[in-house]
Structure formats: C-alpha cells, structure tokens
Automatic annotation (TrEMBL):
This is Uncharacterized protein. The chain crosses the membrane at residues 20-42. PANTHER family: MUTATOR TRANSPOSASE MUDRA PROTEIN, POLYPROTEIN, PUTATIVE-RELATED. It comes from Lactuca sativa. Keywords: Membrane, Transmembrane, Transmembrane helix. The lineage of its organism: Eukaryota, Viridiplantae, Streptophyta, Embryophyta, Tracheophyta. The keyword Transmembrane helix applies.
C-alpha cells in the first residue's frame, strides 16, 4: 500500500497546497467502512498556511478513522476543488460515496463539481442552529429536510402486501432506528473533522514536510 501524496507549488516553486492519504487507510475505507465521508476545513493561525482540510470515515461500531488531510495557503473554491480532486483520485474505486459537511464551509459548495453523482448532506449542527432561529418548526422540517408526515408514512405502509406489512410490524425498534447507531446516531454527524489535526499545526512550528510526516505517523 502506498501513500497518496500531492504537493502543489506555484510558478516560482513555492508551496501552495498538499494532500496526504495513507494507502491502507483508503483500502480499509473501501472494504470495511460505511460509504460516508465527513469532510471539513478549518482556518489556521499561521503566516503562510491558512487552511487545513480533513476527512473522516466511520464504521458500523461508531469508530472514526481519519482518511486523509490537506493544507493550503488559502481557503477558496480553487483549493477546495483541488483538494477534492486529489481525494477522488485516491478513492479511485467507483464506489458511491456520501458526504456530510458544514453548510457554511467553502468545501461544501465544491462537492457537486468533483463528485456530481454523490449524495451530500449537512451536519445536524446547522439544523439545530436554524431551529433556534426559525419559529415555524413545521415549515423547517417539511421544506428543509423533506421529512414525510405520519399520514404519508401510514399510507405507504398500507400499500404493502400483508406479508411485508407483518414483517415491518414485528421487526422491532432496533432495526427501524438503524441498529449500528444506538442512542448516539445523531452525534455521529457532529464530528468536527479538521480539529483532529489542528493541535499539531499549532504546536509543532516546523517545516511543511516535517509536519506532514508527523501527522502521517499519527494516522
């Protein structure tokens, strides 16, 4: 398994961005993890490095795994698209992937350009924020996340054959609520992705190559 590493420089050969993904981590994600990627970016308080990107996967036991990370001199559409293009190259498997992002993150607006066929959702934090702001909760639920009403649900259940309806009636609450996410399944989408790596950036104060090696050794 090889490490997927890309370093982007400008015309004067000065650092612009980097991307690092460990080969066995990508393999583990493809073979063993849910096809959902939590992705985000965070601002860095550095003179030259302005942004860190990070992605995290989660398995059926609610355990997280950092898939890859990247850094860039700016946080804009150009570098976000570059970062996502490198991610697509690393995944090169043809597997459908779903993305969970913060609605206010720049990288969120770039996913459809690089992964046009993927599913894309937002973290529950943004919905909780809207819920505090908006007074009409019913309108928020029905229009923003397209949640069906109870009458629609019951109507669809009635259309099933008697055998299928009996199976669903007796299947138990665990299956309805996705047994792999008991009690904490809403917390899963609250992962603050890039902060897995920010500690190193703020404390190491080393060259970019040494910083990359440090984070790679941690993963």
């Amino acid at each position: 398994m090889y490490t997927y590493t890309h370093i982007k420089t400008d015309l004067m050969d000065r650092f612009e961005a980097c991307f690092v993904a460990i080969g066995w981590v990508i393999h583990a994600f493809i073979c063993c993890f849910l096809s959902v990627i939590f992705i985000g970016s965070v601002h860095l308080r550095e003179d030259y490095l302005k942004t860190m990107f990070g992605t995290v996967a989660i398995n059926r036991n609610n355990q997280t795994l950092p898939i890859e990370f990247g850094m860039a001199v700016e946080n804009n559409l150009y570098y976000c698209i570059w970062f996502l293009m490198r991610l697509r190259e690393a995944l090169r498997h043809g597997r459908e992937v779903s993305f969970i992002t913060d609605m206010n993150d720049v990288v969120s607006s770039c996913i459809e350009h690089v992964f046009p066929d993927s599913y894309h959702g937002y973290t529950s934090k943004i919905y909780a924020h809207k819920r505090r702001i908006w007074q009409n909760i019913t309108t928020f639920v029905l229009n923003d996340i397209q949640l069906i009403t109870m009458s629609d649900f019951e109507e669809n259940i009635c259309r099933l054959t008697p055998d299928a309806r009996e199976i669903l009636t007796n299947i138990g609450h665990a299956k309805w609520a996705r047994v792999y996410f008991p009690n904490i399944r809403w917390n899963v989408v609250n992962i603050d992705v890039p902060h897995f790596f920010v500690l190193w950036v703020n404390q190491c104060n080393v060259l970019i190559i040494m910083l990359t090696e440090s984070i790679r050794d941690y993963i």
